[in-house]
Design a protein that fits this description.
By secondary structure, the chain is of the alpha+beta class. It has one domain: GMP Synthetase, Chain A, domain 3. It contains five helices and three strands; from the N terminus they run ααββααβα. It has helices spanning 4-24, 26-29, 59-68, 70-81, 98-111, and strands at residues 33-41, 47-55, 90-95. The chain has a three-stranded mixed β-sheet with strand order 1-2-3, covered by helices on one side. Helix 1 (4-24) packs across helix 4 (70-81). The protein is elongated and about 70 Å long. Monomer. Binds 30S ribosomal subunits, but not 50S ribosomal subunits or 70S ribosomes. InterPro entries: KH_dom-like_a/b (IPR015946), RbfA (IPR000238), RbfA_dom_sf (IPR023799). Belongs to the RbfA family.
Length: 127
């Protein structure tokens, strides 16, 4: 379980990484939309796992491109939060497949052949 300090740090990193991808990293992602769905920080605050979700892009290719430029993203993060924190964490990016999984489950559920429930007669009649 994360401490309050880790949670606060993770929220700060999530917000700032979101801003970086939205404003400063257009050269990296182009017209794609990158969402930081979750950030988890180690107890010593020196390592952060960021889960990314992609729209309007080939997710594998974009994910590899972002991983190749991890150093630049960390540098941009350091410029933004460097005065308010002691440690700029090492970043590790992971794809967040929850949206894809949700679409898959929605398709599985919609493809189920469920017969309609039999209508029940009202046993209680009002006088």
């Amino acid at each position: 379980m994360e401490s309050k300090r880790q949670q606060k740090y993770a929220k700060l990193i999530q917000k700032e990484l979101g801003d970086i991808f939205q404003k400063e990293a257009k050269h990296l992602i182009g017209r794609s939309l990158v969402t930081i769905t979750r950030v988890m920080v180690s107890p010593d605050l020196g390592f952060a796992k960021a889960y990314l979700s992609f729209l309007l892009a080939d997710s594998k290719e974009l994910f590899e491109h972002i991983n190749d430029h991890k150093k630049d993203i960390r540098h941009a993060l350091a410029k933004r939060i460097g005065k308010s924190v002691r440690i700029i964490p090492e970043l590790a990016f992971f794809p967040d497949d929850s949206a894809t999984y949700a679409q898959h489950m929605d398709k599985v559920i919609s493809d189920l052949n469920i017969p309609p429930a039999p209508e029940e007669d009202d046993e209680e009649e009002e006088d």
